[in-house]
Amino acid sequence: MTASTPSILLYDTQSTHPSTPWNPNTWKARLALNYKRIPYKTVWLSYPDIEPTLKKLGAPARTTDPHGKPHYMLPIIVDIGSKPAVVVGDSLKITQYLDAKFPERPVIPSNSAALQAAFEATFNRTVGPTLGRIIIPLAWQMLDERSQAFFYEARERWCGDEKKMTMKRWRPEAYITDKEWNALKDAFDDIAASVDRLGHDPIYIAGGDEPTRADMIVLSCLALFKACAPEKWEQEVVHWGGGRWARLWRVSEPWRCIR
User: Fold this and answer.
1) pLDDT tens digits for 183-225?
2) Torsion of CA 100, 105, 109, 111, to 10 degrees
3) Selection from 236, 195, 237, 197 nearest residue 212 by Cα
4) Is 80 exposed, middle or buried, given 0-12, 13-18 or 19+ CB atoms closer than 10 A?
5) Reported pTM
6) DSSP 3-state assignment of 6?
7) At how many degrees (to 10) do helices 213-228 and 24-35 cross?
8) Cα separation of 245 and 237, whole Å?
């Protein structure tokens, strides 16, 4: 393969807005590929096509639903440059695979692996609960009709009868309250304050001269907000953390291209 020939296929969630990915998990993989300058090509999948496509590729299910049914999720990559081709799922495993095969420009430097894991655990604990409640209303507008029906029905089955009220709260037409947006702001502000304590106003979360997975975790959420709530982005999100996250977004432009 030449340097410009894609060696990786990245499978991402199809959007009604062309070339506007919104899925935070696939964004983490996309940012890693772009930052590492690995030639790749995006394969877009509607939600009903994810499971049959991943089964055909031999990708394992990520988890099971409460009824024991395998649950298939994006992102996955297929390394078509390897013989035989290698299929990898989960954004963390994808990043680890890419760093091992393409060691230049590491996303998880060996001397910061523990820090990266600690940051991700903290982020998931602080941001994750609120993000999980608003992602369906946010993403709904980005899904085609087939995906909308599948997306809702699959998550209703996942919730089960005892959690119907939870699913009603997650309904696609739900209004995202100011309280929920403020909870997200507070969580992002707390993370910014932790970074500020490094003392030299670093651009990147780990404090070094290059981005790491920690930055890409934050950027994946910013990409969701910008794609699905552009007015909220312009009016509020760019000011979160005293503008820290807006600065990170600006410097990340080279790694946000869509291929």
Assistant:
1) 999 999 999 999 988 877 889 999 999 999 999 999 999 999 9
2) 120
3) 195
4) middle
5) 0.92
6) coil
7) 130
8) 8
